[in-house]
Amino acid sequence: MQKVLIAPSILSANFSKLGQEIKDVEKAGADWIHVDVMDGHFVPNITIGPVVVKSIRPVTKLLMDVHLMIKNPERYIESFAKAGSDIITFHIEAEEDPKEIVKLIRYFKKKVGVSIRPKTDMKSVEPILAMVDMVLVMTVEPGFGGQEFIFDCLDKIELLRKIFKKDIEVDGGINETTAPEVIRKGANVIVAGTSIFGSKDYASVIKKLRG
Length: 211
Ligand code: DX5
Ligand code: ZN
What we know:
Elements: E1 5-8, H1 18-27, E2 32-38, H2 50-56, E3 63-69, H3 77-83, E4 87-91, H4 98-107, E5 111-116, E6 134-138, H5 153-163, E7 167-171, H6 178-185, E8 189-192, H7 194-197, H8 202-210
Parallel strand pairs: 1-8, 2-3, 3-4, 4-5, 5-6, 6-7, 7-8
D-xylitol-5-phosphate binds near residues 67, 142 and 195.
């Protein structure tokens, strides 16, 4: 069993005091900081870009886990890498040539993740599994925090764990009820926005999510 890592998604943090929120989750036991980048094209919502990654980078020692929900991710890898991302995850649905984008992320010496939407077949990532460090399995349709967990995605996690020994991250609708389910299926990195930042006691939620 791999150690379970907790990655609070700052999408649900209070942006008027983002630096403090990050310090607070670090103190509360978080392992990574999950940063949701949305462009209004790949997903209907718009969030933040490299400028914000750069400004929060000095605030924490935690690994900066950048989830790109954007079209043409290859255009932005350099800026996110230089802003201080540690792991850069792109969506398989957004990329016609996934091997090239993996190479580009490696060129900047960053860890590589590939993400799949709930309705995307696992087969679409199989050709690049050997090249990536992490697969991010979406358990809601990407775009917004605070959505209901899609239980159909559990089978996908189980299937993936049989053939992939590195990090499996899950993202969307994770709380104290759904976390044990995804961990049992083989996920080892848990993203949580609403359940952490929506609570009064970050440390207690993080502890419960870890199981
Ligand atoms: C959704 C994002 C998630 C989101 C998770 O598109 O990728 O990271 O912030 O939020 P919760 O935990 O609230 O479902
Ligand atoms: Zn995310």
